[in-house]
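quick one before i forget lol
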Amino acid sequence: MNYVSYFINYVIFRDGITAIFVHKLLDKHFKKYNNMKKQIILSIVSILIITMTSLTCKAQETQSFKFGIKGGLNLSNLYTSDAKSSDMITGFNLGVFNKLPVTSFLAIQPEFYVTTKGASVTYNNLFIDGTAKFNLTYLEVPVLCVVNVTHLLNVQFGPYVAYMIDGKVKNEANVNLFNFEQNINVNDYNRIDAGFLLGAGLDVGSITMGARYSMGMTKVGKTKSFLGSDYTVPNANNAVINFYLAASFN
């Protein structure tokens, strides 16, 4: 196991106080959320921490850690009932992962990467009319259960938590009533996104090629008021189809 893997293992797993600290920090940050949204996010974070902590010791008893890099193409969309239409946009993901074997057919894989999300959304309602392109960038941490169906094919599933580091919007067409570029900036988005991932991969030696689908459980936009009425732009959840290539190192 290389030094990077040792470092990740130490920081993420060794000190149980980390779980308590992160939970308290997020609990303070999410006071503005209603109880249901707050519990969903905190539950997902708890799953991430508990899963990594409980399975690391088992992983150490079986096979060596595998550290690697990964990157690929994103096709992202925003699912909303408030818009006339929502079209996919392309983006990317790039980061690292640490594969922790539990048995010969099961592994736990925490990852850390930069990923883009968003969509081109067309509105036509009382407050907003026109098309805008939302370009969102997140730091994302999933913890995946990787099941080897055969020696080549695996399936992956698990929760993720992401933090928005950039959120831009661009007027595209027929912008009336509401100017997206002038009225929306990064502070108008919910910085935290949390949800679930499902995918499959093909292992060829130290190289893995795969595809995943992720669905966010939290709203992207914050709720605001205008003339006594509440509105949210975008009142939507993230969804991403991801194609990736990964290389692992023992």
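fyi Residues 1-22 have pLDDT under 50 and may be disordered.
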